[in-house]
Every structure is written in C-alpha cells, then in structure tokens.
Amino acid sequence: MARRYDQRTTIFSPEGRVYQVEYAMTAIRHAGATVGILAKDGIVLAAEKKTTAKLLDGSSTISEKMFKIDEHVVCAVAGITSDANILINYARLSSQRYYYTYQEPIPVEQLVSQICDTKQGYTQYGGLRPFGVSFLYAGWDKHFGFQLYQSDPSGNFAGWKATSIGGENSQNAQSVLRSKYKPDINYKEALELALKVLTKTMDRSNVNSDKLEFSYFTKKGDQIVYHILSPKELDDFIKDADLENENEDS
Amino acid sequence: MARRYDQRTTIFSPEGRVYQVEYAMTAIRHAGATVGILAKDGIVLAAEKKTTAKLLDGSSTISEKMFKIDEHVVCAVAGITSDANILINYARLSSQRYYYTYQEPIPVEQLVSQICDTKQGYTQYGGLRPFGVSFLYAGWDKHFGFQLYQSDPSGNFAGWKATSIGGENSQNAQSVLRSKYKPDINYKEALELALKVLTKTMDRSNVNSDKLEFSYFTKKGDQIVYHILSPKELDDFIKDADLENENEDS
Amino acid sequence: MARRYDQRTTIFSPEGRVYQVEYAMTAIRHAGATVGILAKDGIVLAAEKKTTAKLLDGSSTISEKMFKIDEHVVCAVAGITSDANILINYARLSSQRYYYTYQEPIPVEQLVSQICDTKQGYTQYGGLRPFGVSFLYAGWDKHFGFQLYQSDPSGNFAGWKATSIGGENSQNAQSVLRSKYKPDINYKEALELALKVLTKTMDRSNVNSDKLEFSYFTKKGDQIVYHILSPKELDDFIKDADLENENEDS
Amino acid sequence: MARRYDQRTTIFSPEGRVYQVEYAMTAIRHAGATVGILAKDGIVLAAEKKTTAKLLDGSSTISEKMFKIDEHVVCAVAGITSDANILINYARLSSQRYYYTYQEPIPVEQLVSQICDTKQGYTQYGGLRPFGVSFLYAGWDKHFGFQLYQSDPSGNFAGWKATSIGGENSQNAQSVLRSKYKPDINYKEALELALKVLTKTMDRSNVNSDKLEFSYFTKKGDQIVYHILSPKELDDFIKDADLENENEDS
Amino acid sequence: MARRYDQRTTIFSPEGRVYQVEYAMTAIRHAGATVGILAKDGIVLAAEKKTTAKLLDGSSTISEKMFKIDEHVVCAVAGITSDANILINYARLSSQRYYYTYQEPIPVEQLVSQICDTKQGYTQYGGLRPFGVSFLYAGWDKHFGFQLYQSDPSGNFAGWKATSIGGENSQNAQSVLRSKYKPDINYKEALELALKVLTKTMDRSNVNSDKLEFSYFTKKGDQIVYHILSPKELDDFIKDADLENENEDS
Amino acid sequence: MARRYDQRTTIFSPEGRVYQVEYAMTAIRHAGATVGILAKDGIVLAAEKKTTAKLLDGSSTISEKMFKIDEHVVCAVAGITSDANILINYARLSSQRYYYTYQEPIPVEQLVSQICDTKQGYTQYGGLRPFGVSFLYAGWDKHFGFQLYQSDPSGNFAGWKATSIGGENSQNAQSVLRSKYKPDINYKEALELALKVLTKTMDRSNVNSDKLEFSYFTKKGDQIVYHILSPKELDDFIKDADLENENEDS
Amino acid sequence: MARRYDQRTTIFSPEGRVYQVEYAMTAIRHAGATVGILAKDGIVLAAEKKTTAKLLDGSSTISEKMFKIDEHVVCAVAGITSDANILINYARLSSQRYYYTYQEPIPVEQLVSQICDTKQGYTQYGGLRPFGVSFLYAGWDKHFGFQLYQSDPSGNFAGWKATSIGGENSQNAQSVLRSKYKPDINYKEALELALKVLTKTMDRSNVNSDKLEFSYFTKKGDQIVYHILSPKELDDFIKDADLENENEDS
Q: Do A158 and A150 contact (CB within 8 A), yes or no?
C-alpha cells in the first residue's frame, strides 16, 4: 500500500517518508563504492570503477569518479554521472563567483551548503526528480583546514572523519572504517586504509589501476596539493599495500 | 477510504483534514526529541542526536540540531535537515534585511511569523510538499524579553513556556514538562529539567555528549549571550545532574 | 459515487456542489466556537480556546483567536490559524493602503469584500485548496457605525446582528442567539449573552479564562475603543455572570 | 459511462456536451428563483430569498440578490454569491472604464457581452471551473431603451421580455410568465405578475418581505430611477396584491 | 477501448483520430441547421432557430444565428453561441486591424484563414477544448467577388457553392442541395432553395418567422448590400414560396 | 499492455517507441495519396482528392492539397489540413524572413529543416500532440537545383527522387515508383508515371479532374515555373495518358 | 509491478532506475550500428544505413548518419534523427558562439559536455521525454589532439578508443573491437577494422555503398581533414578490404 506514495516526488507517505528520495539513494547503491578519509595532513578519496571497457580513453580529462571544483575543493561521485555533471558545473560557477566577489577561495562548507540547497529543491517541487547522486567533498580552507563532507540526494550533508558512499557493501565499508580509523592517521596510512576498505569485497584479480582510482589532498609547505595517482603509481602502491594487507589479515 | 485524499497537498479530506501536513508531522516524530524551556533569566534548548557514527566530524561548524539565525535568535530543528536549511537561510536573510532597513534587530515574533507564512504556502499550493520540519525558536528582543516559540509543518506557531518537538515519546516529554516546570525557574535549573525530559526514555549508557546537545541563552549584564555546551562541559554537567536526578527519582 | 468529484477544487459535482469548499467548512467545525454580537453601543466577540496546554506563553502578542486588522476593525477566527494569518496580513495591508490613498479608514464592508474575493479565487482555480478558515469581522465606520460580518471558505459573506462560527454545536449556538438576542441589547448584555452561548455545552469546570477569550468594541465619547478582557477581568466577569446565568436557567 | 467526461471543464463528452457547465447550472437551481419582466415603462426584478436567519443585518449595503452595476444597469443573481461578486466587480470596472473613455454610459448589451466572454473562458481553459452563477441584467440606454438580458454559466446570453433564473420550479415560473405576460404591461402590473410567479409554489406564510426582494427601473421624466422596495413597501404591496391574486385564482 | 483516447484534446487515438474534435462536431449537430448558397448575384444564409420561447426580446441587436463581422463579411453560426462570440470578436478585430493597416477591406479568405488557425490551436495544445462551433462565412471582395466558406471545430475550411452546417438531418440537407443547386442560380432562387432545404424535415406548422431566419448579400449598383429579412418579409416570402414548394413536390 | 504508453506524447514505450507519433502517421494514411517525382528538368507533384462534394467552390484560391510557400518552393500535403496550415504559414514567414535578411531565396533544404525542427518539438514536449501531417516539398535553388523532400509527423525528413505520402495503398505506390522510375526521366514522363501510381488502385470512373490534382515545377530559360494543371488540361492529359497506360498494362 | 514507474520521465523506480531513459536506449538499438575508432593519425566513423529505398536522393547535403558540427568536430548518430537534429543545431550554435567569443575552436570535450548537460535536463524535468539518440563525436583540438566521445540519452558521456552505438548486435560489435583494436592502429587500418565490425552480422550481399557510410578525420600537414568516402571510393575499399577480410577469417 505504501506504493501509493512513491510516484510523486513532492508527497509524504503516511509514515512521513519521501519515497523518491529513498529510491534515488538506491540508484546510488548500484554505483561503485567511493571512500573518503580525513587525515592529519590531508584527505584521501578512493573509488572503485564499475565500467570495465578497456577501450575507454583515459587520456581525456574526464575522470569517471573524481572532479576538481576549484584549486582547494574536489568531489567524488557515486550515482548518475550526468546528474552529477549539472551539480558540478553549478559548484564550479559558485566557487568562481565567490572568488570574484571576495577575492578569496570559497569556504568549503559554504560551497557544500549551496549545492545541497539546490538538491533539496528537487525533492520538494513537483515535476522534478531528485538528483540521483551522492558526493564526497574534500577541501581545505583557512578557517577549518582539511575537511571532508558527504551529501546525499535529499540535500542532507555532514562533515565526516571517514565515510563511504555507493557500493553494494556500503555497510561493510563503514564498519571497516569505524574499526580501523584513528584520528592521528596520516594521508599515506589513509591511502592504505582506503585500499583495504575498497578491496575487502572485490575479487583479488580486479584489484588494479583498471578498477580503482585514488587521489589525495595534502599540503606541501604552504601549498595545497591535489594529486591523482597515475595507473603506474596506483599499481605500484597496490602491490606494496596488498602484501601488508594479507599479513594483517592473517 | 480516507486515503483518497492524502496524495495531493492541496486538498481537504471530507473530514476537513490536509493529510500531507499530518504526514509531514509524522516525519518529525522520527527525529530526535528537542526540548525548549523559557526561564526567568534565559532560555534552554536541548536535543537528542540520532546519528551515531563516531566518525562524524564535530569540528565543522554544522550543528546537527541548533542553528543561529542572528545574534538574538536561535532555532532548534526536528525533521528533515535539508528542508530546515532552506527555511534557516530564509530566516537569516529576513533578519539581516530588517536590520539593514530599521537598524535594530528584528523582533522575534515577527521573524517567526514570516517563516511560518512561507511554510503555510507549501500546504496550500499544488506541486509542492510541506516542509517536513518543526522548529523551536529561542530569542530575546526589547519588546518581550526572552521568548520561546514553536512552529510545525502547517505554519502554525505559538509562544511557549516549555515545550518539546520530535521524538517518539513526545507525549511523555510534554507531561514531564507540565509537571516539573515552574514559572520562576532559572536557566540552570532549566538545563537540568531539559536533561530529565530527554533522558527519561533513553538508555542510560547513551546519556553523554555523543547523543545530546545543550545550549542556552542568558544575559550577562546588558549583553545577550548564547552558549552551546562543549562535549566536555556537557559530560561534566550530565555527571553532576544525573546524580541529583536519581535522587529525585527515588 | 459523489466522491469522484471531491478531489479537485475546481470542479462541480453533478449536483452542482464544490466539495472541497464543503470539506474546508468541516475543518472549521473542529475549531472552537466563536460568537459575535452586534449591540446598540458596540460589538462583542467571544471565543472558546481549544488548546489546553498550560505552558503556552500568554505574554506574547499572539492572540489565539482574535486579530486586530486596524484601529477600527478586528476579526475573530475559526479554522486553520496559519491559513488565517495569510488573509489577516492581506487585510492589514489593504487597510493601510486605503488609508494611505484616501487619508481615512477603510469602510468595513469594503475590507471584508476584498478578503472574500481573494478567498473565492482559491475555490475556482486549479492547484489550490480553499482557505480553511471562517472569520467574524467587527468594525466601525462613519457610514454604517458598528458592523458585524461573517465570511466562510467559499468567499461568501453577510452582515449579521449575532452569529457564531466554528464549534461542534454551532446549531445550538445559533438557536440560543436567535431566542435571546434583542435589537436594543447593549454591549454589556451582549457579553453575558455571548458567555451563555459559549458555555451552554462546555463542562462547567472549564469555564474560565484559560478556555475563553472575550473582547468588545465600544465608543467612549468620539473614540472607538477595542478591549480584550484580561484573564482576571474575564474570570471576575464569569463569576458574576455565571450566577445570573444559573438563576436564569432555573 | 457518461461520467468519464464530467471531471474536466475543458472536454466534450461523446455526445458533445460540456458536463461541468451543466453541473454549474444545477448549482443555480438550488438558489432562490429570480424573475425579470420588461414593461413598457420600466423593468421589474424580483427574487426569493433563501436564507432565513432573522439575525442577518439588513442595514448593511449588501443586498443578497440584486446588485447595482452603474446608474443605468442593475443585475439580479442566482447561484454562488462569491462567484457573482467577482463578475460584478468586473462589470462595475468595465462600466466605469467605458464612461471614462467615451463620456457616456456603456450600452447595456455591450456590458453583458463583456461579462459573458469572461464566463465563456472559464468553460474552455483547463484548471478552472465555470462561474456557478446566472444573471438577469436590467438596464436602459439611449439606443434600445429598457432592456432585460439573461446569462448562464456557459456565457450564453439573450434579450428577454420576461424570464426567470434559479429555483427548483423554474419550468413552472416560465410557463406562468408565458401565459400571463402581455407586451403592453406597465411596471406596476409587472410587479404583480412577478409576485404571482414567485409565490406560486411558496408556502403562503412565507410570502413577506423576509423572503422576497422586489425592485424596478422606471423613468421619471428624463430621469432613470431604480428603486428597491423597502420591507414596509413590499409588505404593503403584497397585502394588496395578494387579494387580487386570490380573486384571480378563484 | 477507443474511449481511452477521448479524454484529452491533445492526443491521437491509435486510428489517428482526435476524438475531442469529433465530439465537438457532435455538439454542432444538436444546433439548428444553417444553409448557405452562393448565387450569381449574391449569397443566401438561412437558419433554423431552436429556441422557441416567445418571450425572447427580438428588438435587441443580438441575432441568434447571424453575425456581421464587417461591411463585406457576415457569418452564420451552428453550435455553442458563447464559443462563437469569442471567435466573432476576434474576427471583427482582425478585420478592423487590416483596414487600419491597408485602408481596404480584408479579403474574405484571409479572414477565414485567420479564424481557422486560431481554432486549430485549440485542438493541439493541452488544457483547452476545441471551439464547439461551425461557421458559414459569406462575403465579397474585389479579388474573388462573392464567396462562401465553411469551417468546423478542427479549423479546416473550404470554399463552397452551397452547403449546410448543424442540424440532425445534415445529410438530407446536403443531398437536397446537391440535386437542386444550379451554378447560374440568382439570389432570389437561392432563397427559395434554402427554404426548401430547411423545411424538408420541419413540422409544417413551425415554418414561420419564429423558427427561421433568412438573410442575403447582393450588389445594388457598386454597393454591397446585406439584408436580414424582417419577420414580416420572411412570413410573406414563406407564404409565396411554400406554394411553389408544394407544387414542386407533387 | 503496450497501450499504457500511448496516451502521452512525451513518453517512450518499453520498446523505445513514441506511440503518439505512430498514431499521427495513421491519421495520414486516411488522407488521399500524394506523389512526388524528381525529373531531370523539373518536379511533379500529384494528389488524389478525397472530398467529393461537387459543390466545393474551386474558384477560390484554396488548393486542397498543394500550397505555394515561395516562388521557388511548393509543398503537397497529406493529413489534417488545419495542422498543415499552421506549418505552411510558418514556412512562408521563414522564407520571407530569409529573403529580407539575405536578399536571396532561402535554400530548399534549410526551409525543410526549419519546419521539421518545429515538428520535432511537438513530439517531445508535454501537453501537445504531434502535427498530423506529412509533406512533400518541391523546390529549386542555385546550390542543388531541383529537389524533392518528404517529412513526417516525427520531424524526420529526407531527399527523394520519387516518393509518395498518404493513401491506404502507400506500399503499392512506392513499389510502382521503384520499378518504373528512371533517373533520366523528364517532367512530362514524370506526370505520366504519377498518374499511373495514383490510379493503380482507383476506380477507373473516378480518374478525372474532380478527383485528381497535378502540378509541376520546370525551368523556362532561366525562369523557374510552377504550374497547376487546370481541370481541362488535367482531363485532356488523363485521356491521352490513360490510353498509353492501358497499352502498357496489357 | 515495476511498470508503475515507467510512465513519467521524472521519477525513480524503487530499484533506483529511470525507466524512460532505458526505453530511449532501446529506441537506439533499433537504429543501424555506428562504429568509431580512434587511430594514431585520425579517427574513423562508419555506419550501417537502415533505409533501403533506392529512390532516396543522395545528392542532397543530408547525410543520414554523419553530421559536421564544425571544421574540427563531426558526430555520428544512432536513434531518432529528428531528435538528433535539435541537438546538432544546438552544437553548431555553441561551437560558433565559442569561436566568436574566444577566436579559437571550441575544445571537443567542452562541446560534448554542453550537449550532454542539455540531454540530462530532459531526463529530470516533467513534461519532457529524453532525447532518443546516442552520438559518437569525433574531433581534434590542440589540447588533446584526436578524440572520440560517446554519449547516450541519459546525458552520460565518456572518451573512447573504439566503440559502437546502435544496432541489434551491439555486444558483438564491442567484442570484435576489444579483440582487434590496437593502440598504434592508423586510420587506414581503422577503416578496415570498422568494416569488419559492421559487416560481421550483415548479409554479404548488402555490404556495399548503399548500406554503409564511411568517413574519417586525419591530418594533412597542419591541416585537419574530414573526408566522407564517396559511394565509388567506398565500394572500391570494400572490394579490397573484403578479400583481406575473408583471408583473415579463414
């Protein structure tokens, strides 16, 4: 009977639920998992790639999962990529507008808040569907240093120390993070933790740069640096890390 | 049969009810309880936090339940946070606009009334759903001193001496407030009363700063002061208060 | 079968009825009763309050049932308060606009007519629901002296000598008014008559200033005066009146 | 099966009918009957009042059934009064605009035609319901002298010598008019004929100024005069007329 | 099953039909028949009147069936009169606008074409119903002399030598026209032919000026003359014609 | 089950079809067949007329099937004529606008492309139905000489050497064209081929200028000439051609 | 049951799918296959033509499957051609606008991204259907040299080394590409590979320039050259290639 209330985005069901938002969240579950970890000295974003076609042209500028919004903010995506593109365009514009007005980078939380207000509108007005996409936002600003946020299709968001979005085994990922995360982790350890989380349920033969994407924010002196691991860097890193991993599991 | 009338926000059922508004109120019941108490010398807002992930990053500026609108007004939220954000943005803007025009803080009731008129519109026009959020507004102005208001998804509001929103045991909370509230309560006693109300139905092991959020308005000389208890302050306060509490119960 | 025609505000049923308007009237029946009596020397408005929470803060400026529109017009409300607020805002603005344009108070009937035209629109256009509120308007102008009007959700209105809106026992109230009303009644007798009407079906223990609200218009010399009885005044008045009342009943 | 086509104002049924318009006409049948008679020297409008509350305040300017549009045009209404108000406002504005532009009164037919075009629109566009009201328009202009028009919810209109709208016994009224109307009738005889038509099916005890409303247009020298019979005039007139009436019936 | 496609004006049924347009045509069949005949020296329009109330005021300017658009164009109507009024207003405005711009009368076909484009729009856009009216347009211009056009609710139109719209026996009328029409007919013979067509299925007792309306265009020297037969002229004409008629039938 | 997807123009069925467009195409099948043939030295357009009323006035400028858009472009229509009129108006305006801007005739393909983009919009947006009309466009421009295009309700179009639209035996017509068409055909042979195609399935007694319409484009020196065969020319042509035809068939 | 969610473009099904987008993709499967291959020194686009009418006029400028957007970008289409036209117009305009503003060709990815954002909107807003078309974009810019992109009705896009859209045997085509593609392929080898992919499932007798369309981008010195193989070139190429092909298969 609950199904009577799930065909319009703008209505509540008798239990007070907005079903279209919940269905949008299901869409995200089909996407590859994405993990974000806030470290003392940076932030790690790591994602599982679902598309397997070896003919994809990696040399273009399109990352499948990670998008730079500004020099100091990056986001990782789980869900419908074309929905995400709209919001990312909006975020980039917001960021530039802020810079143009105030001559300083937009604070990370303010940017996240603006995107989420847009998302919320698509859950309340008729004739629209919610954006079928969740984000992890990693950024740095002078007020709060490194920050990691997560938002979902409802427009809710929160700051996290470590979290994951997307993936069928999201629960699993969250519980690994809870048990292994330590507040004084550095970004290199965070990379390893992210690998552990993502590969827990993957077939070992798939654990390589074709199926994974890793990046991190850190600080080099006064400079904020964002780096995406090249396939070679990633494969090397996996080879080293994997060994440790097995040891630890045993 | 009544269900025929609950799929559009803009219609009355034969009994004269607007079901979407009632369902939105149900949404609020799933949220953690929030208590507001008006004291002689201030106002107390206290909330139960539902999210339990220890990985949430508390250092960011986002309070989960309490939002400053202006120097002299604060609100506590129960319901869908992304819905609340939209109304809070609107309230902040209204407040600044008033100040810009009249060079004095907006009277608390006028601010509450404006937000509620916006809420009402979402219950009368087609293609929209009501805002799934109730508010407690705490504020001070020169006309009426400290004031506590409560509003719900229909856009109704009223001034209260002590009240609670959200929470499965809302009835319970209201009855504790009715029996224990005294008009000459001071804000410190109000903090203790709020704790008693919130913890009545909580598992004792959960009664700590991870699960609770306390704040109060008071006056220091001519200055209005709003203070959110830090986790440490809160835990200390709970330890002391809890003892008293038990004594009283016995 | 008639139910096929009751889910859109903009259609007639085969019998020529607009069901949404009739359902909105049902909504008003759930509200507390409100009585208006036109006297030789003034007008009385009296209302039963439904909310019983003793923690409501009466010191704020919000009357639950009676709203001043201008110095010379007041209205009493039965129905959804947040709907009423929208119309009252509109009435206040209309009244000020008239004054600004013509430098004299708006005639009472003109004001009532404007509000009712607005109400009518919400019964004829799609995507809207009717306003779920009935009003009693009490006012004075130089053309017709004291006047009492009643309007309902359809936008119909009429001038009355004595009438009541809201309340489950509306019929009862009307019949008491019909049998006891005398054209040469003065406002003090009208207060007593109003009390009699409202308390007829109330539990005697509830007959006090917590549950009732009384106000009247009268003329002091050339001055129009509007007065809301304070809880003390009201309780005193009830004590005196009640006795008479009982005598009369016996 | 025909019922499939009666829930949208903008569609034809397979038989070529627009049901919403027909239902609106049903709404008018519930209203009290209104009779118009064109005489050599004037026009008579007479109506049965449905509301019986003796507490209605007759001293206000609101006639229940007859509305002056301009010095030279009056209309009588059967149906939903709040719908009528909207069209009467529109008619008054049209009339003044015409006068302002051309410095002479608007021809009666032109005014009627404008109102009816507005009515038509509400039967053809989606999201609206037809106006639930029929009118009799009585007026005088220099082109055609005294004129009587009738319009219905579809926006159709025509000039009549004598006609009636509203009332459960509309057929009856029409047939009395057909048999008794004479082209050389004067306005005084027309008043009597109107009384006969309206009272045919009324309970004799109700035939008084509480239940009836009579008015007429006539010419005093060059002056057009519109007069509504006062309750006293009406009761006197009924007393005299009634006798004749009985004689005639016997 | 075909009925699934008849409730929206904007959709095709699987057989490629737009049902709402076909239903609108049915509406026209209920109207009285109207005949147009193009003669060498003029055009005849003749109509059967459906309304029978002898109290209709014929002295007003409203013809029930024939409307002058401009000095050189007239139209006859079958269907919903209030729908027709809207299109006739539009046609009059178009005609005047053309004259104002080019200082010569609008060519007849251009006028017809404009009205039909408007009609077409109401069959293609949602939320509207087609105009429930067919027209015969009779006119003269310097390019093509006398012309007779017919249009229907779909917005289709064509030039005709003789045709009829409306009436339950439309087929019958068409077949009489086909068998009796001669290209070298003059307007007087055309009047008789029109009478024959209209009266074929009428009760002989109804064949008089109460039930029929005749008019014709002809040329007096260089002047285009449009004449509506007065009731007297019509009755005289019927008397003479009828005889011939009977002779011919025998 | 497929029928669930055929009531809205804007949706795909599970098989990826837009049913409303397919139904519109069915509407075209009911229309008379129209043939276009591109010859070395011109283009032939020939159509079967469905309306049979001998009373249609052929002297007016309205061709039933062929419409001149500009001096160098003509179109033939199959489907709903009033729909076609709208697009033809649009085409004429486009053509004139182009000429006004660039001082040379619009290239034929550009004109066709503009009309088709308009058609496409009516298949993708809600609240509209597709245009129920197919076109053959014949034209000449300096870039590509004589060109023949065909478009359908979906907005698809293509250039053709010989094609037909409308008609129940469209398949048949196409196959005759395929077997008989030769690239070096001249416009006179093309006229005969067109006749053969159209008359294949017609009753021989109907093959005359009442039922057929023939026109062609050709070049006289540098001049582009468009000629519609007069009824006499057509009947003469049929007489001659028919003989050959029979010979050929035997 | 899933079918409840497939009739509106703007809703998610409970499994998080947007069915209208998936149905649009089905529409594309009915189209002929199109193959794109990125070579070291150019890009090949090759398509199977579905329309078989030998009477199609190939001399017009309309390619059925390949459209030039600008000097440096071309796209190949699979799906509804009239939908594609709208997007191609938009792309051409975007490209020219960019050039006008920055005086250099628009980067290929930026162009693709703009088109895809437009596509996305048609999957999220009510009252629209998604564009039923997939594209291959081939282009060159100074930032990334030769690039090949693919987009689908959802608005997703990605860069590819070799891919195919449309065609019932899309899986098959993809797998041939995966097994035969080599990164150091040159454009001539790519032409042969494309032929192999397209003809794998075609009837050998259809493998000729009537059924196929081949084009390529390459660089002649500093010049970007786009060439569509003429029917003769194509048939010659097929003859040569086919032989090799057979040898290879054996």
A: yes
Q: In this complex, does chain A touch chain D, defined as having at least 3 beta-carbon pairs under 8 Å apart?
A: no
Cα C113 to Cα D89: distance, rounded to the nearest angstrom: 10
Element (H, E) at C6: none
Please say if the pLDDT value at position A139 is more than 70: yes
Chain D contact set for E3 (CB, 8 A): 1, 4, 14
The average confidence (pLDDT) of chain E is 87
C-alpha E73/C-alpha E66 separation (Å) is 11
CA atoms within 13 A on the CB side of E89: 13
Whether E224 and E74 have beta carbons less than 8 Å apart is answered as no
pLDDT of B8 reads 67
- In whole angstroms, how large is the CA radius of gyration of chain G? 18
pLDDT band at G248 (very low <50, low <70, confident <90, very high): very low
Cβ of residue A60 closer than 8 Å to a chain G Cβ? yes
Nearest CA in chain B to A126: B127
Please write the tens of the pLDDT for every residue from F197-207. 998 877 777 78
Q: How many angstroms away from the CA of E181 is the closest CA of chain D?
A: 31
pLDDT of res. D60: 52
Strands, E assignment, chain G: 34-39, 42-48, 66-70, 73-79, 133-141, 145-151, 157-159, 162-165, 212-220, 223-228
Q: What is the dihedral of CA A9, A14, A16, A18, to 10 degrees?
A: -20
DSSP F157-226: EEEBSEEEESSTTHHHHHHHHHHH--TT--HHHHHHHHHHHHHTTS-GGG-STTTEEEEEEEEETTEEEE
Helix (H, G, I), strand (E, B) or coil at D119: helix
Residues 6+ positions from E47 with CB-CB distance below 8 Å: E32, E33, E34, E35, E64, E65, E66, E76, E78, E198, E212, E213, E214
At E94, the amino acid letter reads S
Pick the residue with more confidence: F8 or C46? C46
What dihedral angle (degrees, nearest 10) is formed by the CA atoms of G103, G104, G110, G115?
A: 70
Q: Please tell me the least confidently modeled range out of D19-33, F45-59, G38-52.
A: F45-59
Left if phi > 0, otherwise alpha if psi is -120 to 50, otherwise beta: which for D103? left
Q: Which residue has the higher pLDDT, G211 or A118?
A: A118
d(CA A35, CA A15): 32
Token pair 């590409």 is at which residue? G177
Choose, out of C60, C62, C81, C122, the residue to mutate when testing the contact with B (most B CBs < 10 Å).
C60
Cα separation values, G135 from E6, G77, G148, G155, Å? 37, 5, 10, 10
Q: CA of G9 to nearest chain A CA: how many angstroms apart?
A: 9
- 3-state secondary structure at position C228: strand
Copy the structure tokens of residue G225.
Answer: 């050259």
> Look-up: residue for tokens 């049951």?
G1
- Quote the strand ranges of A114-168, DSSP E: 133-141, 145-151, 157-159, 162-165
pLDDT value at residue A140:
95
Query: Distance between CA atoms of B38 and B194, rounded to whole angstroms?
Result: 11
Q: How far from the centroid of its chain's Cα atoms is residue C37's Cα? A: 10
CB of B6 within 8 Å of a chain A CB? The answer is yes
pLDDT at res. G61: 52
Mean pLDDT score of chain D: 87
What percentage of chain G carries pLDDT values higher than 70?
A: 88
Chain position carrying tokens 């009531």: F7
Give the largest CA-CA distance in chain A.
Answer: 60
From residue E17, give the alpha-carbon distance in Å to each of C155, D127, F17, F26, F167: 42, 25, 19, 9, 16
Residues of D in contact with E90 (CB under 8 A): none
Instruction: State percent of chain E over pLDDT 90.
Output: 59
Q: Indicate whether this complex's ipTM tops 0.85.
A: no
Q: What tokens does F66 get?
A: 């062929």
